[in-house]
Amino acid sequence: TGLSASYTNAGLSGGDVVTCVLTPNLPGCVAATYPSNTITFVKSGNTTTWTGTAGNNWFTPSNWSNGLPDRFTSAVIPGGTPNGPAMASDASVYDITIGNGATLTMSGSPILYVYRNWTNNGTFVPATGTVDFVGCSSPSVINSSGAQTFYNLMINTPYGVTISSGNQQVSKLMTFVTGLVTQNATLTFLNGSAVSGATDNSHV
Residue 121: which of 105, 137, 103, 95 has the closest Cα? Predict the structure, then answer.
């Protein structure tokens, strides 16, 4: 409002959406208002840990210590749980960590939207699923202790993705929408894989 360059609202919660509207009020200015794109407030920092006490369904809240992960909540999957998580439909996560001895299994063709970092010290079974990096507030990092395979890998964050460790393998399709991939470790395209959408603004 007025000439203030800042907006303060202590009541915002994660997922709230605001729109800024510029209303000219100086003599000679056009009277039209100018709305911005919608702005989603991202409040991250929560973590939930897989327990697997109620089976292997990713979407069963009682399988997690602090409820289901989402775009504001990080997921930690430790080894040694009674059941490993299986994901059969689309899901979101802020950071994801697959611990030593743990396995994350995709079933069918779900999409896992990752809003920041991916760390795999265990096993990832991708089926025909997609891992889509969609970070909207900071760069993303992919780490693994060895080779891991993504079926479909999508780069869709203007902040970019850094391949920091391991051997990241793509078996089907790597799609570039926006953002650069910084390759500080190995990126392997397996026989029969392909690349789509690479541009000056989105490539390795």
Answer: 103
pLDDT of residue 43: 62
Q: Do residues 141 and 118 touch, judged by C-beta distance below 8 A?
A: yes
Secondary structure class of 57 (helix, strand, coil):
strand
Reported in sequence order, the residue ranges of 53-203 that DSSP labels E, i.e. its strands, are: 73-77, 86-87, 91-93, 96-98, 103-106, 111-114, 118-120, 123-125, 130-133, 140-144, 147-156, 161-163, 167-178, 181-183, 186-189, 194-196
C-alpha radius of gyration, the chain, whole number: 20
Distance, CA of 23 to CA of 38 (rounded, Å): 16
**Are the beta carbons of 71 and 113 closer than 8 angstroms?**
yes
Q: Please count the other Cβ atoms lying within 10 Å of the Cβ belonging to residue 92.
A: 18
Q: In sequence order, what DSSP letters do the residues of 103-128 get, joined into one string?
A: EEEE-SS-EEEESS-EEESSEEE-TT
Given a cut of 60, is residue 1 above it in pLDDT? no
Segment 79-121, tens digit of pLDDT = 999 999 999 999 999 999 999 999 999 999 999 999 999 999 9
The model's confidence at residue 33, banded by pLDDT at 50, 70 and 90, is confident
Please tell me the pTM assigned to this model: 0.82
- Rounded Cα gap, residues 38 and 171, in angstroms: 36
To the nearest 10°, report the CA torsion of 158, 35, 14, 12: 140
